[in-house]
Amino acid sequence: MTAPAVDHIGIIVAALEPAIAAMSLVLPDAPVVRRSLPEVGLEVAEFQAANVIIELLQYTTQVAGLARRTMGSATGLNHLSISVPDLGAALAALAADGVEPMEGFPRCGAHGRIAFMHTDPRTGLLVELCQAESAHPLEDPPS
Predict the structure, then answer these.
(1) What is the distance between the alpha carbons of residues 81 and 105, in angstroms, rounded to a whole number?
(2) Which domains does the chain have, with CATH numbers?
């Protein structure tokens, strides 16, 4: 059995550029990948450490679009993304225990097919499941 892998840790920031400068001090040699996701109102900077991606997220609009409805507006540590080989199978296993994804998921995300689950009442943790781009074509299912 393969141990589960954390794909990334999401952190909401008020301003991306100062946050990038600060993170660069603690991860000085980490490659940084920037992404613009206007369809959900986000600018993203990903610091690619050897064992995990640290994802800095800045909202680009005050409108309560999908990103804000999913992740909230509070700055700071936001979510833990778990890598899964088959998102459909992972969601089916969770559904068997009564755990469903948030409305609007699964869908394409910055790292592949994603599904945010409702915040766990026992841990207070917002969890995202992520199937890497290379594991599945980036297509949203027909509505």
Answers:
(1) 14
(2) 5-135 (3.10.180.10)
